Amino acid sequence: MSLDQQSPEAVPAPDVAALDRPLLDADIARLRADHPDDAAFRRAVVDRFRAALGDGRAAILGDFATDHGGLRCASRLAALQDEIIRSLYDYVVRYVYPLDRPSTAERLCVVAVGGYGRATLAPGSDIDLLFLLPYKQTPWGESVVEAMLYVLWDLRQKVGHSTRSVDECVRQAKADMTIRTALLEARFILGDAALFRDLATRFDRDVQARTAREFVAAKMAERETRISRAGASRYLVEPNVKEGKGGLRDLNTLFWIAKYAYRVDNPEALVGAGLFTAKEFRLFWRCEEFLWRVRCELHVVSGRAEERLSFDYQRRIAARLGYGTGPSLSGVERFMKHYFLVAKNVGDLTAIVCAAIEEREAPPPATLDRIVQGLKRRTRTIAGTSDFRVEFDRITVTRRDVFEHDPVNLIRLFAVADVYDLPIHPDATRLVTLSLRRVDRALREDPEANRLFMDILTSRRAPETALRRMNEAGVLGRFIPEFGRIVALMQFNMYHHYTVDEHLLRAVGILAEIDAGRSREAHPLANELMPTVAGRSALYLAVFLHDVAKGRQEDHSVAGAALARGLAPRFGLSDEETELTVWLVEHHLDMSNTAQSRDLNDRRTIETFAGVASTPEQLKCLMILTICDIKAVGPGVWNGWKGQLLRTLYTETETLLSGDSPDFDRNTRVLAAQDQLRPALPEFPDDEFRAYVARHYAPYWLRTGLANRVRDARLIRTLWQQEKGFASDVATDKFRSITELTIVAPDHPRLLSIIAGACASGGANIVDAHIYTTKDGLALDTVSVSRAFDQDADELRRAGRIASGIERALRGQIRMGEMVAAKDASPKGRSAFELHPKIIVDNAASRRHTVLQVSGVDRPGLLYDLTRALAGLSLNIASAHVATFGEKAVDSFYVSDLTGAKITDPSRQEVIRRVLGDTFERASDRAGGAAPTGAGA
């Protein structure tokens, strides 16, 4: 029988075999005889305690490595700690502060509180102790407490402690909810038992009685604060095992509330109190066991009290717990799917208890309002159905057999809740979970059930909320088994913040915001397009399904399209809507990839993309879906720069599809750009303007906008007038979340590499770069870096430091390789990922250049190394486009050889692949070797 199948009764009782206390006490007695000097005796005793504690922990953790029993490990560690404290107390009162005839004032009780009070300790946990003293006391008690604490500290134990009388405990518990919670779990360890009984009686009578409502409210508010701090979703891919949503603290809170309100002493009593069924209690135990197992493993592999299950540890813990690779999921993905399913179960159990407590503790209506409120607020009917009603402002069932009588009600319940904009009563949700077997093939094929589902999905109210309720109740995954496969499925990378199902639900929520016009400032184009979308249902279904084939061996876009083709007709979509849904799912990554990794000023890019999104309807829907997809990845992933790239790609493609743009030839377009610039530069005399225009090659005029042309002309003029070899300009753009740095300097093959190095050493992330060379040998390079500061002044200072570093490197005053090497410490967690470099040499993506698309594990200074390698290969870089997806860097370089031609020779292409691949595989020896003259590289 696996650990997950064991019943609570099957768990071995905690034992203290890891410590032979009589032997320890006998050893201390011998040490006293061998060391008449008090100081020497104390040192010897501390050493003996240290050995006993170390040996005991080693034995417990050794057993844990074999049996992986989380609760057993935690219970044994707490029992070991108890025995150490008892032996320590005996040592102090026998040898350090002995009393022949103690008075009633010379009493002491040692109490475990907090997590230690629950008789569980993780390997790296603190121990929380309450030293309980009588109201009238002598210095003896404080001396004993001090002596015990000093030994515990010498043992390098993390001790939280307090010394109070019973009166002080009661008074502080009334005033402080944290102290009240700690005392709720107080556990007697040793000393005067009468003191502890007095504390328990007084706490129950003076604190706990008649304050359940206050305590429940405080704990729930505390939970909300804690969860918002740790991450609001229980589906964060790096969850906090202790504090996160669905973690151990939620189980603790659940039991605290039940214990306070129902006066139960252990979780088993929740069944007798009517809060849980026997089955639900077994689920409670399995959740607690699993979370304790993971927490103990996390402390062991990290060597400290680490509570965040980061990527660093996920793979190692999965291997330790025996999660092997399956047909489609790796071991770590199987482990994390199990984790998230447990977190979901914790949420279900918490909802059950909180609902029961809420009803139990709900205040009665005021006397004058009782009749009205009883009719209006407590219960009211719902038009058009006799199966549901509103009770306490929540949708609930009218009888226990509503789902048995009509299984469509399993979908209708969520539709009704959405229509009335009301939450679902936990009792109704509980009944849903008990009726999931009725979500069968017949229900999936029922036209009314599918119509209701589409009503929910395309609702103009809160479809994300309704779908999440369905998902957490288990209905969504059973009604759509294709969706059920990705429930709680994580993607083992640093890009996606949530599990796949959570990502899809959030994407639907973002689409609903755009549909309702609530994000006009953030997405003006999408909000303008949405009312014109003809296939609204197809768009919603595509957003809901776009990643539904994740976790399969085949390409998830292609596999997802095949799934969508089968599902769309079931949901009532027409043939035309079905084809649009299928197309959107299959191509849902194309617009994002093109916008972030291709030169949008290159005509071939637009023509190629227009060959994919070949109708205005496809283009509109894909634009909106792409925004939803990127934003739903996680906080901070979407920014104005990506939005601008998508808008540019949409506008250029839409113009091409509409056929509205004049078909100018190349020379005509160059002359038009020059004519447009002339009135914008009134300070330039005609001869100076003609000389300036003659400096640039045709690609510059074809690829730059008017604002950039004006900036560049004035910057180059400054270089002329000041007779300097370097000039720079900085422009911030809050809307696009970037800062543009433009450099003018004599052309140098390593100039872009130096710029990349300066940005890396300055902590700036380059997202785009355009490189131009004038006919008289000047380089005009513009790089866009991600914005790091809210204030423009801070951005300008950072960019100024970067520009200064570039100038100093060009003058040979600094070695850029050394600057980058100083910054290049491996980021935390990157070693957890295995990603082999991939180098694509593409001569079809551009008419004039070879496009090199390189991808691999990102690291600081990577772009510096790549651009330096390209310079070493004697390649000219016309533009660079940099994208990062978590741990993965995807960089595209538009290059040509020194004659301006594409790289067509197969042997040279192979050399490029090998050199760039090696750049990913090993860190460059940046600081070594001589720098090129004047380059400072």
From TrEMBL:
Uridylyltransferase (UTase) activity is inhibited by glutamine, while glutamine activates uridylyl-removing (UR) activity. Has four distinct domains: an N-terminal nucleotidyltransferase (NT) domain responsible for UTase activity, a central HD domain that encodes UR activity, and two C-terminal ACT domains that seem to have a role in glutamine sensing. It catalyses: [protein-PII]-L-tyrosine + UTP = [protein-PII]-uridylyl-L-tyrosine + diphosphate; [protein-PII]-uridylyl-L-tyrosine + H2O = [protein-PII]-L-tyrosine + UMP + H(+). Residues 1-383 are annotated as: Uridylyltransferase. One of its GO terms (biological process) is regulation of nitrogen utilization. PROSITE patterns: ACT, HD. This is Bifunctional uridylyltransferase/uridylyl-removing enzyme. Residues 500-619 form the HD domain. GO terms for molecular function: [protein-PII] uridylyltransferase activity; phosphoric diester hydrolase activity. Residues 740-817, 851-926 form the ACT domain. It comes from Lichenibacterium minor. Pfam families: ACT_ACR9_3rd, GlnD_UR_UTase, HD. Belongs to the GlnD family. Transmembrane segments: none annotated. Keywords: Hydrolase, Magnesium, Multifunctional enzyme, Nucleotidyltransferase, Repeat, Transferase.
